[in-house]
Amino acid sequence: MGDLVRNSKITINSDGRVLIAASGAEMKDLLSIVAEFYLSRNLTQGRKLSMPVPYDNNHLICLETAKEEVDKIMVTDAPLLFPPGQLALAALRHANEVHRVLDYERYLENMLIRQNSIHSSTELIQHLNAIDSSVRTYKFPSEKDMKHINRELRSCWGLSSHDDSKKRDKKSKHKSKRSAG
C-alpha cells in the first residue's frame, strides 16, 4: 500500500473523491485496509477498550470472500469503468451478502455522510450494481478459445515463428535418423 502513496497513484479530486490507480494485488491490499478499518471500528463502537479486539471467524471469512470477489472483478471491464474504491466496496458488499457480518446499507450511508459526498447513496448503489452485473454476466473463455488466444499472443510476441523453426529442426533430425538407420 505504501507504493501507492510513494508512486503518486492516489489523486484527490476537488469534490473530495479519492481516485487510486491500482493493480489487482494493490486492490486486495486496499480492500483489506478498508475492511480492517471498518471491522475494527464496528467491533469497538460504543465500548472503551484498551486492547484491539480480534476478528471472529465470520469477519475473516467475509474478508477472504471479498478478496476472491476482487479477483473476479479484475477480469471484467469494471476496473476500466469504475474507481478502485467502488470496486472494493462492491466486493465487500458481495461478501457481506454471503456472510451477513455487517449492516452494509448503514455503512454506506455513514460513509457518504462522513465524506460530505455530493453523490447520493442511490448513485453509489447503482454503480455497485453495475459492477456486480459485470461480474455475473462475464463469460470465461472456453479451453478452445484460450488455445486460440494463446496462439494469437505467441504470434504477436514473435514466438510462433521461433517455435515453428524448432519443430522443423526436430522433424528434419528425426527424418535424417530414419534414413540413416
How would you describe what is shown here?
By secondary structure, the chain is mainly α. It has two domains: 2-137, Cyclin A, domain 1 (Orthogonal Bundle), CATH 1.10.472; 143-180. It is built from nine helices and two strands. Strands 1-2 form a two-stranded antiparallel ribbon. Strand 1 and strand 2 (18-20) form a beta hairpin. Helix 3 packs across helix 5 (84-99). The chain is elongated. Residues 42-54 have low confidence and may be disordered. It holds the Pfam family Cyclin_C_2. Residues 168-181 have a biased composition (Basic residues). Residues 160-181 are annotated as: Disordered.
The number of distinct helices, counting runs of at least 4 residues, comes to 9
Structural domain tally: 2
For the sheet with most strands, the description reads: 2 strands, antiparallel
Low-confidence spans: 42-54
Total strand segments: 2
Class based on secondary structure composition and strand pairing: mainly alpha
Straight-line N-to-C gap: 64 Å
- Main β-sheet, spatial strand arrangement: 1-2
CATH superfamily of the largest domain: Cyclin-like
The name of the CATH topology of the largest domain is Cyclin A, domain 1
Cα gyration radius (Å)? 24 Å
Domain Cyclin C-terminal: 61-131
Organism: Eucalyptus grandis (Flooded gum)
Keywords: Cyclin
Biased composition (Basic residues): 168-181
